[in-house]
UniProtKB/TrEMBL annotation:
Record keywords, A-Z: Lyase, Periplasm, Signal
Record's protein name: Heparinase II/III-like protein
InterPro entries, per the entry: Chondroitin_lyas (IPR008929), Hepar_II_III_C (IPR012480), Hepar_II_III_N (IPR031680)
Source taxonomy: Bacteria, Bacillati, Actinomycetota, Actinomycetes, Propionibacteriales
SUPFAM superfamilies, sorted: Chondroitin AC/alginate lyase
Sequence segments annotated as region (Disordered): 34-89
Biased composition (Pro residues): 51-61
Family annotation (Gene3D superfamilies): 2.70.98.70, Chondroitin AC/alginate lyase
Molecular function (Gene Ontology), one example: lyase activity
Signal peptide (UniProt feature, chain positions): none
UniProt organism field: Kribbella shirazensis
Amino acid sequence: MGTTVALTLVCVLVCGIAFAGAVFVLMPGARDRGTTASAGGSPTPDGRGPQPRPNQSPAPSVPSSTEEPLPGVDTPATPPPSTPVANTGTYECPGFSGIQLPVSMVLDDTFAWGDDPPYKVGTGSGDINWRSDPYRKPSWYMWLHSLRWLGNGIHAGQRGDRKTLTHVLAIIHDWVQDNPYSWKGDVGAWEATMHRTNVLLCARQAVLTGLRVSSLPAQYAWLDKSLVDHAQFMIVNWSGPSNHGTDESIALFGVGCTLKRPELKKLAVDRLTQAITTAIDPQGSTNEQSVGYGMFNYLLWGRATTALQRCGSSPGPVIAQRRAALSEWLALATKSTGELQQVGDAVRQKPTGAAGTALDYVASLGKRGTKPSKRVAVFDAGYIFGRTGWGETRPFAQESTYSIRYGAARRLHGHDDHMSITYSSHGRDVLIDPGHSGYQLDKWQAWSKSPAAHNVMTIPSADTAAVETRLLRASITPTWESYSLADSPAPGVTRKRDVLVLKDPDLVITLDRGQATSNQRYETLWHLAPEQKVTVQSPTAAVAMKPGDKSKTYLLQIPYQQQPPADGITVVQGQQDPVQGWYYPDIFHRQSAPVVKFNRTGTNAAILSAVVPTATTEAVTYKTRTVSGMFFVDLTVGARKATIRVLPDGRLSRIS
């Protein structure tokens, strides 16, 4: 593979989602992995791939794979304490996360990762073949070099099991001998550096505790030398102000604290101080364009704060301020179902609460913590989060929640999801994001990041690209919100979307308008949750319902300026060529899920949609009328009524 693909694999190795029981936790990442799938489904660079690190030289490739990676966990189960911790002058072993192996496997030099069979990588004496790559999976190779799989052996050694401690140290020493500084020529060893640094620190602590000594015995001097080498590697190859760079800075601080090297501590603190203002903006938005990575950022910076305080360095006020803002951001980004919005690279997960915060409020479904001060918020970074309430007049889970994306073009862990809407109501997901297909550069990732995987108007006949989307106006009232957005996704093509979100009855109205200099295919897509069965009743109406459920969803294409054609509504599900109609609850599982398309062909299109969740016993009807150039829709949902006004410029509002 060429240098570009090799550099892309650098991120494939470290940006992941871990599976530990039923908990999914995001790993840090620092670079974009945009791809375009070839006809055969194999990955090719699309020109928006990873940016080289400062002074980065070409790195050799690691064999690619069509399998989805399964990296290890790198976040604590609960957030670090919000109150200052005692200064003990030490760096605490951060643990080994979700890829620990039984001690018996460690003693047998056998490594296992993901769902692949265990593989004997050594002789049984700690002599490891560090070039082992039996399954040709970049992440398998990187986690082998991380040494995190030695965690249970290190714990055993710390408890006094000298046989196991000796074997673990033999494996670590073998890595040090077989991978001399600088190991930058090996992508897997390179990208595992920050993880391996922490393992070395944990092993050093296990030696002191297991042998009941206060200073490192001379026979293990190589361990401290290797820690210095790892620190030097991270100094020279810092990833910058990103999640990955922040993790490196914490590990660098750990070396400085452990070896009493104040210059390393200072450099780490300086880098953290620089990174925090990029990682989290003053409004609480992260630079990763992902709600899931927002949760990771919250935990990561809590870990940084604790590490600094425990070893006598002040984290300063900015980290606490930005984390507090991010806590509010994440609370607003939590659906009424109690899960985070799956926006950007994000798996299905619940937020992790911190005592007394707004995040704790949503994590407990309103039972504790502090209720967020806002019901709806518009963030400059390109996020709109809204809800009908916080459970004041109806159960928390029965509120309706939504998200809308706009802003800067896709980067890092973002998707081409501008103008997309997610929506939850009646205790369930109605409009979904595709989720996170993983880090393998294949047709599935290309689709999951594309506009076709989101609830937007797409122009599949045009050569579209990731572009900035402008929020032109926003109106927030007690019973409705409206937004106007615009962009130009392709040369000679403009796209506008007006959105109206109602409370009582809870529903979403959108007006999509596309205009081009030549005939185009326009499709407004509505991605529904898996197991929904869609019945197309006419070119203007479809109904979706999960068998046995107590609610259903009406999807209405209301005639406006144009009469929908005979094939005005089509449904796609579980399609592989081209990919369409799927959902990823996590990177390991893919489920078919229906996509309802509202279709047009021509130089322009005007598609007025209504997405109306109801009880199964309720009916939805509407009438339209035009008065003085204004278009009105009189909607009836069960016994509730609402009148929607469409102004000539497309603005939507509720007038009753």
